[in-house]
Amino acid sequence: METRVCRLYGQNDLRIETEDVPEPGKGQVLLAIAAGGICGSDMHYLSEGGIGTIRVREPSILGHEASGRVVKVGSGITNLAEGDAVAINPSRPCGTCRYCSEGLAMHCIDMRFNGSAMRLPHEQGLFRDRIVVDAAQCMKIPLEADPGAVACAEPLAVCLHAAKIAGDVAGKRVLVTGAGPIGVLCTAIAMREGAADIVVTDLQDAVLDIAAQMGATRCINVASQGDTLAEYEADTGQFDIAFECSAAEPAIRTAIATLRPRGILVQVGVAGDTPMPLNAIVAKELKLQGTFRFGEEFAQAVDAIVSGCIDVRPMITHRFSLNDAAEAFRIAADRSQSVKVHLSFEH
Description:
Elements: E1 2-10, E2 13-20, E3 28-37, H1 40-48, E4 50-51, E5 54-55, E6 60-61, E7 65-73, E8 85-88, E9 91-92, H2 98-101, E10 112-113, E11 130-134, E12 138-141, H3 147-150, H4 153-166, E13 173-177, H5 181-192, E14 197-202, H6 205-213, E15 218-221, E16 239-244, H7 249-258, E17 259-267, H8 278-283, E18 287-290, H9 297-307, E19 316-321, H10 325-332, E20 340-344
Parallel strand pairs: 13-14, 13-16, 14-15, 16-17, 17-18, 19-20
Antiparallel strand pairs: 1-2, 1-6, 3-7, 3-11, 3-20, 4-5, 7-8, 8-12, 9-10
């Protein structure tokens, strides 16, 4: 059996190729991928040849957000059967290192993560029609579940972990800077958890419209309405919690300026070295909290999507076939019109 794959050879060198698919071994399943979401990390690999110090050093199949259906099961599998629909967890912690033993699997020293160039050989990704994965990566879902929505479980898990890090948001005033996929999902979670006020900022009206659909009580285009944020700086700040999802220095400064004393800045967005006004962080006794990947939140994300508790569908703005991956990546990089772009696969 052959499968198409979306393979990156280097900066701006993306090719659709075919390769043979192996038989599933013990503890493995063969999946037909249904839908896959293009992540910011995928776009960085393509446009820059890497992310920060992590470089693409060999041909690598992209993709870590996906759903699929079981085609064949290997030996020793009792919880999955041919025809089952599944969400695919790209995260494979070792389970035995110091951090896994402490319940911090997202910090696993020997982490394997689909579509990541961190290790060498690289961990190959999910953007292909057929793939053999460990059965433990699969979470069974109802056959009637929307595969596109379920493919958003991985980014939703990231945001659920960020919300857990932030603590109770019920009744709180929340700022979300950046209305990309992570920003709008943090918005949806804040709404579900009963935040009193959810203000979302971005530079693009189109993505702010999606944020409004997903629970924002107010959207501010900082390119055209930047002065509006001054009202949230009054009395040393108005927000209790800020989810910073852009990693842009101006947005980080805005979050710090508008947080009230002892507010919490949850840094979700990732970039390189970024200047910060430490004097304001100190003077206002702010808590600066990083957040990284997820653990048990993946299962929670799948449950939230399947149950309809969180509706992720508004964020899926475009869908392309795998053969049109280059155009899909081009649209995904255009934040004036896209939030989450999905690839669809053959069955």
